[in-house]
Amino acid sequence: MPSENLPATTKKNSRSKRIFLWIAAIFLLVLVLGVTAVEVALHRAEPILRARVIDTLSTRFDSRVELEHFHVYFFNGFQVSGSGLRLHPNHIDMDKPLFGVDEFSFRTTWHGLLHTPMYVDKVNLRGMQIHMPPKEDRSNMPKLSGKSGSSGGGIKIFVGEIQVDNAILVLETNKPGKIPLDFEISSLILQSVGQNQPMKFHAILTNPKPVGNIDSTGYFGPYDTSSPGDSPIRGNYNFSHADLNTIKGIGGMLSSTGNYEGTLNHIVVDGETDTPNFSIDSGNHPLPLHTKFHAIVDGTNGDTYLQPVDAQLLHSHIIAVGQVVRAPQGGHNITLDVTVSPARIEDMLTLAVKTTPPLMNGDLKLKTKFFLPPGKVSVSQKLQLKGDFQVINATFSSEKIQSRIDELSLRG
């Protein structure tokens, strides 16, 4: 390279370095300003979102809202988490909050954040407690509404789906000696389809007695603000692996399917049950039991009215009409009018008595009042029956006994 070209080349390289340094400095400044802006936005977003959450819940549930922890994180939009959420109704005097949530989280995009109302695709709740007040006080339940409430704000957040894990629903009572009714819900998904429209749900519940899982899908609502018990509900259920051994005195593994429709305080249920190994402890002889039933359920207190239950036990046909209602001392009182016909006496003896083969064979007709109170003793000890029965064409399984009966009959 000629020596006269070196100063020009050096000057050109120096200019390029200065340009590069200026670009780097500008980029660094933009980056610092961007990080600062994001940090400022986050600090501003957290109280804004917190206020929106509290204002929305306060308005929608007409309640005083407590929120212990609330945090905002910036990653692919806004991520929000919190804990210690409690709602206390403004018009009901309750020792415990109506709603409580141990932990919650949700995420929204920039577009969803700036949208009015703010749109959240999915909310996750863990450790939810719902304490419904006594039935007499439920007329003062919060009025769910999209309009402005006593707090002066409106609904500022719309949620597409709510995923609830590990929830418990408690139906409180103020009757002396009567215990609250508890339902454990391991999983619940709620999907909003629009204002004043039914809400789709999928729930998995743990039934306390008999212990088993209830998987139900259906629609609830729209919520009746003036009379919550008149809110419509419909769906279907699958009750699987229900262990009857958890009820003292009986045994077997029950499964049931069916559908339901009506209002919360008057749910019409039609279903079937299968228990291939139903047994009573006094006999301990498992027998197949199949039932079809039509029932009315009061979803506000759990009382059930059977109209009727149609059962088949081996060769015996059983019709039962009555009710299963909460007892003051806890558990349930079962009161039924039972008709057994056509039937076989050996089916009943096999079920109830340990003797094999059953002592007697023959046609059976029976009508009885059936009352089974709750308690820790076995079914055979607490069961009360009052009625009449008729055994026709009876024979004894023991030839010795039968010959003596025949001889006595001839003498007569």
Could you give a short description of this structure?
With 412 residues, this protein is of the alpha+beta class.
Task: Please explain how this structure is put together.
The chain has 412 residues and is α+β, with helices and mostly antiparallel strands. Helix content is 21%, strand content 50%. It contains five helices and 18 strands. The chain has helices spanning 6-61, 110-114, 345-352, 379-382, 399-411; strands at residues 63-74, 78-89, 99-108, 118-132, 157-171, 181-191, 199-207, 211-220, 232-243, 250-251, 253-263, 266-280, 287-297, 304-313, 316-326, 332-344, 360-372, 384-396. It has an 18-stranded mixed sheet that branches. A hairpin with a 3-residue loop joins strand 7 and strand 8. The radius of gyration is 34 Å and the shape is elongated. The N and C termini lie far apart (145 Å). 16% of the residues are buried.
